[in-house]
Input
Amino acid sequence: MSYRSWYECVRGCGRQYSLNEVVYRCEECGGLLDVQHDLEALHTKSAGEWRDIFEARSAEPFVSGVWQYKEWVAPQVEAGNVVSLNEGHTNTFRANQLGEQVGLPDLWVKLCGNSHTGSFKDLGMTVLVSMVKQMIAEGKSIIDVACASTGDTSAALAAYAAAANIPAVVLLPRGKVSTEQLVQPIANGALVLSLDTDFDGCMQIVQRLSEDPTVYLANSMNSLRIEGQKTVAFELAQQFNWQVPDWVIIPAGNLGNVSALGKGFLLMKELGLIDRLPRIACAQAEQANPFYLSFKGGFQQLEPVTAGPTLASAIQIGNPVSYERAVKVVKQFDGVVEQASETEIANAAAQADRTGLYTCPQTGVALAVLFKLVEKGVVTTNQRAVVISTAHGLKFSRFKVAYHEQDLDAVVEQYPNPPIELSADFDSVQGAINRASL
Output
């Protein structure tokens, strides 16, 4: 069976484009584009047949967690043009202890940061860079692949572009990404431009750069990214024996990730692999909350904000590109949008760490929002909830150190655990242990 996919305008005007065209918005109405798949062809296999195919592939060594679903993601990319770093296949952690503490016994955390560059962005970047390699093989003149980033996108782009031997250009807001995130694209040989602006300012410039068709845009307004990121939904369902949780809670910044999550669940339901949809909760930092404000106003419109300083720097975005897509998902999934303060973010991350996790601040936002929803009775104690952890905590070590040194601005730390400095003698050590056990 030959499978195919194409771009189609999200606003329903009917305009379609080939995936090998350099296009990001509908030329008729300006709407974003989504990748659509030939559902008639996909329906030629039963739900059971698809499950068997994916189960067999996931048992193979070295298989990508994205490309095991190739027919559902990017069927036109030839095998020789796939650029994979064995992304995906991330574990879903049973957070028993944390769940008991907050009154939610069936709590899980999907550790998407356990990937090659340390974040979920690998899932979308493998698809985008593979498609670029395919386009170049077909004769397209693409010189650079470029992105604006708050850190994780740039790391993923730089790694996958290096593996494909394609030049990468990265625009970062100066002083607003962690050192660990900054060094990743530098190490992978990208041209890193640190600009005196915020993410939204970087995004405006990279969109202008991509008006040149030889500069290919790698941000999530490019829906090829969405195709890879939707595999988080596939993995979750597969890990729970093709059952869906009651709730999925996800950090929300540029809103590509929630759009991808919804798209993945909807495709599985369409093809009969699942029989219902989960509810989705989008979690925003109070300092960067345009989607929350729009939700509170009934999604009448998006009013961009100037994102303030937040520990959750990866979602410090005031004008989210994928707003239209995300609104559709929240409505289809009976979703909610909630926000969290800086103190709530920091303490939720620290509380989770004390139960064996090692969370990034964006995951802290999702956890803090979940705790609020439990307190309000929106998420009930008999429900299964999965928090999407978007990046590895090691990317944010300075945040961790500052928390335990009680040196974070506007944060009241509940769980500080600084090292105890002692003289090197047995009695001092024994005394410290005894005091800690009291």
